[in-house]
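Need a sequence for this fold. Nothing fancy.
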């Protein structure tokens, strides 16, 4: 695999901020990748009494506040939070400098996982927002109110600069905290995060201790309450544990993290798309069926046709398991999905595929491997200007060791 021209750098930047500056006159300025290199030694999770896990004070105070895009164009935001003592209000109060205070109502849900019972998980979508506008919002109405803010993206269009942060496989170790801090301190100032899967790693604990989903929610709030993180499901979201009587995959993840999948005609929250500024972002699921005739297959087939490159010149795909990976770690796990979908990615000229899973940073040249037909022997990747660049960014700081071989 190393021969294909993959440039690899072990444990390099975990957060790459891309400056998408695109217009006919301006050359794309990709900014600078951090030179930070994580130490190879295994890290440990932050203890439960760490500062980053602190429960906000006050009766029934909202915690684990997080936002994500709530529609296809960026005029809606899904606001989510957890209350512990009682359900409390589902209302989000929000306003901008140019608008009156408005309210939006949502719902709450709860779930059980083995002997864990969740708090009251609220999801409220606020809609019809103005583009490129700073909004303040308040949750916890009637009990302990907490105020946050976000900035809506500019109207979708070809000449709209935007900066995405990239994080994958974050976890909740001391190194995870370093990753998030690097992202926050990056002078490029990411406006939204493309998160390529593996959030809390709660499933590494006995009984998948879902308390570690709550701590992760509190740890990440300092970023995700203020800018949307675009979610991708990873293997650590599956939480399939028949030995605990838990046989419905993705139960904690789907209860806690909502995505606007219906807006793109998807029938499940694991694959969907959004447009944001000059980018069309397709999120795929490495852990849902993707073979021919499956729902994800039918959806993607239609989806790629919808992309209008005059409107959104950037076509980005997020998935968890990389298709191209030169490490022995998770070797070939993405291969069957690659065989299914790579011809489409070449046909529709996907710009870049971001994946996680392999705990390293790795970036390919534009190359494809779509000529093989079982008998012709043409099974070596070749340089292909219609093919995407593949970037693996799976080293967010979780406690599993780095891929080095
Ligand atoms: C769940 O069960 C485990 C042992 O199987 C125990 O250590 C833990 O305290 C229990 N948690 C709750 C919330 O009951
Ligand atoms: C996490 O990082 C923040 C700063 O970015 C720091 O204030 C905090 O003390 C750190 N917490 C731990 C447990 O490392
Ligand atoms: C594609 O987008 C451009 C620019 O927004 C628009 O003028 C054109 O009508 C769109 N094409 C289609 C087929 O929707
Ligand atoms: Fe993973």
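Here you go.
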């Amino acid at each position: 695999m190393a021969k294909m021209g993959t440039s690899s750098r072990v444990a390099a930047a975990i957060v790459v901020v891309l400056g998408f500056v695109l217009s006919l006159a301006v050359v794309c300025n990709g900014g600078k990748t951090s030179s930070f290199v994580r130490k190879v030694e295994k890290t440990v999770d932050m203890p439960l009494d760490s500062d980053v896990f602190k429960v906000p004070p006050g009766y029934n105070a909202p915690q684990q506040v997080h936002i994500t895009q709530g529609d296809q164009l960026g005029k809606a935001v899904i606001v989510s939070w957890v209350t512990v003592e009682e359900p409390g209000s589902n209302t989000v109060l929000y306003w901008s400098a140019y608008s009156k205070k408005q309210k939006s109502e949502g719902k709450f849900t709860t779930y059980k996982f083995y002997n864990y019972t969740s708090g009251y998980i609220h999801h409220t979508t606020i809609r019809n927002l103005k583009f490129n506008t700073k909004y303040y919002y308040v949750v916890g109405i009637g009990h302990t109110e907490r105020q946050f803010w976000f900035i809506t993206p500019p109207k979708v269009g070809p000449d709209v600069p935007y900066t995405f942060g990239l994080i994958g496989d974050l976890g909740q170790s001391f190194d995870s905290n370093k990753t998030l801090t690097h992202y926050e301190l990056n002078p490029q100032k990411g406006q939204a995060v493309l998160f390529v899967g593996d959030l809390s790693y709660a499933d590494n604990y006995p009984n998948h201790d879902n308390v570690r989903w709550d701590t992760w929610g509190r740890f990440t709030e300092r970023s995700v309450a203020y800018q949307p993180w675009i979610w991708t499901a990873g293997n650590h979201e599956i939480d399939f544990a028949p030995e605990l009587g838990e046989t419905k995959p993705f139960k904690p993840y789907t209860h806690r993290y909502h995505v606007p999948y219906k807006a793109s005609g998807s029938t499940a929250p694991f694959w969907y798309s959004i447009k944001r500024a000059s980018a069309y972002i397709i999120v795929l699921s490495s852990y849902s069926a993707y073979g021919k005739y499956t729902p994800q297959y039918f959806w993607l087939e239609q989806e790629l046709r919808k992309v209008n490159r005059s409107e959104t010149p950037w076509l980005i795909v997020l998935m968890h398991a990389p298709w191209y990976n030169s490490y022995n770690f998770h070797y070939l796990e993405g291969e069957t999905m690659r065989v299914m979908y790579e011809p489409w990615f070449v046909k529709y000229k996907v710009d870049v595929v971001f994946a996680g899973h392999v705990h390293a940073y790795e970036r390919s040249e534009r190359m494809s491997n779509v000529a093989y037909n079982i008998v012709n022997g043409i099974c070596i990747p070749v340089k292909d200007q219609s093919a995407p660049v593949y970037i693996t960014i799976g080293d967010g700081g979780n406690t599993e060791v780095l891929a080095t071989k």
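For context: The first strand starts at residue 7 and ends at 9.
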